[in-house]
Design brief:
alpha+beta, elongated, 4-stranded antiparallel beta sheet, 4-stranded mixed beta sheet
């Protein structure tokens, strides 16, 4: 009887050690993935694509701020494609996603780097995560759509 009791205890102990190893491995992998920005860049590129499509559908002129926290990222808008990249990594490590352009509204292709500076009558918006600055703004008229990080101070409404 004592031998079966000892075998059961050793088996339980081995099972607990394997379970502990798996949990530690999963926590380490989760921490590694949380530091990876690939998911964030992919999400932002897809979300911005849908956001641009929504802006196109508006019949009126408008200025819209992008509501996501994007302080560490920059954006390149090319023909029917947006690329999001981390400011320190560069464009080669960016994530891209297509968006649909309308033929009657010109999309102004540009690269938007998020920084903060103030000069004359314009504020370049962006900055640290805790700031109230707007990192990305879209200005749409009847004939053009411009992604930018600048807005005039008299046009700023929170």
């Amino acid at each position: 009887m004592k031998k079966s009791h000892t075998d059961l205890t050793i088996g339980t102990l081995m099972g607990l050690l394997v379970l502990l190893f798996v949990v530690i491995l999963m926590l380490f992998r989760g921490q590694k993935e949380s530091l990876n920005t690939k998911f964030d860049k992919r999400f932002l590129s897809m979300d911005l694509s849908m956001f641009i499509d929504t802006i196109y559908s508006s019949p009126n002129d408008l200025i819209v701020k992008y509501p996501q926290k994007t302080y560490d990222y920059s954006y390149r808008f090319e023909k029917s494609r947006i690329t999001v990249y981390k400011n320190k990594e560069g464009i080669k490590l960016g994530e891209s996603f297509p968006f649909t352009e309308q033929k009657d509204i010109e999309f102004i292709y540009t690269t938007v780097d998020i920084n903060y500076a103030q000069d004359n009558n314009e504020i370049t918006v962006g900055g640290d995560e805790g700031s109230d600055n707007i990192p990305l703004v879209f200005e749409k008229t009847k004939h053009a759509l411009l992604p930018t990080s600048k807005i005039k101070t008299e046009e700023f409404f929170d």
